[in-house]
């Protein structure tokens, strides 16, 4: 992205960006793990190694566009994501309001992004776990649409399945746009992020 500068972010506070997913190669390419893949994309672009292990999570600390950030992936399964996220936030003294969670969402069309401040879990078990762990939902979410099954598959089977061939073609562009959305949240705030990303469909540029 390279155009935003987070050095003007209020108080220069440390932010925690968490991608939700399931650990292990069995789940790596599934729809449920798109949060992991967005965080991996951020880590690769900004040279932040997500190799440290603590509190049943892997994480790395670094700088993105001049701002300080911790990137993390809980290694508990999706339904148990909350305790690792809370432990990391407490360890780094990061307030809940400075946490950004990236996760899949079946209620959004494939490729659509939606930034949301606060709120409930919307039926997402990973978000439910985070809310339960903190005792509240006062954190920012980046919802990445994976759509619903057109063939009547159960939700659990659908999100734990891999992307179709056509979806896989578009996936890198969706992940890049989600990366841009996270940077906008960190550098310009959620309100600007909402205006910029919530209503725009993903389109290929090549």
Index terms:
6 helices, about 210 residues, alpha/beta, Rossmann fold, globular
Structural account:
With 206 residues, this protein is α/β, with parallel strands linked by helices. It has a single domain (6-197), classed as Peptidyl-tRNA hydrolase (Rossmann fold), CATH 3.40.50.1470. Helix content is 34%, strand content 20%. Strands 2-3-4-1-5-7-6 form a seven-stranded mixed sheet, with helices on both faces. Strand 3 (57-64) and strand 4 (67-74) form a beta hairpin. Helix 1 (34-46) crosses helix 5, helix 2 (82-91) packs across helix 3 (125-134) and helix 5 (165-188) packs antiparallel against helix 6. It is globular and about 45 Å long. The mean pLDDT is 90.
- Low-pLDDT sequence parts: none
CATH architectural label: 3-Layer(aba) Sandwich
Q: Would you give the CATH topology?
A: Rossmann fold
What structural class is derived from the secondary structure elements?
alpha/beta
Mean pLDDT: 90
Largest sheet: 7 strands, mixed
Rough shape? globular
Helix coverage percent: 25-40%
List how many beta strands DSSP finds. Answer: 7
CATH class value: Alpha Beta
Short note summarizing the structure:
The chain contains 6 helices and 7 strands.
Record the SSE blueprint.
Elements (H helix, E strand, L loop, with lengths): L14 E5 L14 H13 L5 E3 L2 E8 L2 E8 L7 H10 L7 E7 L7 E5 L7 H10 L5 E6 L9 H5 L5 H24 L1 H8 L9
Parallel strand pairs: 1-4, 1-5, 5-7
Antiparallel strand pairs: 2-3, 3-4, 6-7
Helix pairs in contact: 1-5, 2-3, 5-6
């Amino acid at each position: 992205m390279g155009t935003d500068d987070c050095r003007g972010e209020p108080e220069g506070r440390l932010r925690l960006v968490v991608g939700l997913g399931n650990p292990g190669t069995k789940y790596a390419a599934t729809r449920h793990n798109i949060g992991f893949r967005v965080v991996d994309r951020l880590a690769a672009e900004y040279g932040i190694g997500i190799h440290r292990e603590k509190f049943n999570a892997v994480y790395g600390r670094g700088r993105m566009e001049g701002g300080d950030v911790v990137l993390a992936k809980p290694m508990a399964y999706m339904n148990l994501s909350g305790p690792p996220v809370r432990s990391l936030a407490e360890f780094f003294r990061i307030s809940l309001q400075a946490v950004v969670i990236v996760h899949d969402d079946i209620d959004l069309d494939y490729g659509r992004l939606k930034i949301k401040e606060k709120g409930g879990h919307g039926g997402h078990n990973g978000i439910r776990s985070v809310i339960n762990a903190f005792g509240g939902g006062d954190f920012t979410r980046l919802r990445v649409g994976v759509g619903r099954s057109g063939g009547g598959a159960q939700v659990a089977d659908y999100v734990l399945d891999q992307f179709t061939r056509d979806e896989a073609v578009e996936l890198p562009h969706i992940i890049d746009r989600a990366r841009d959305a996270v940077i906008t949240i960190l550098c310009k705030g959620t309100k600007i992020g909402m205006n910029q990303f919530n209503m725009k469909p993903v389109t290929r540029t090549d």
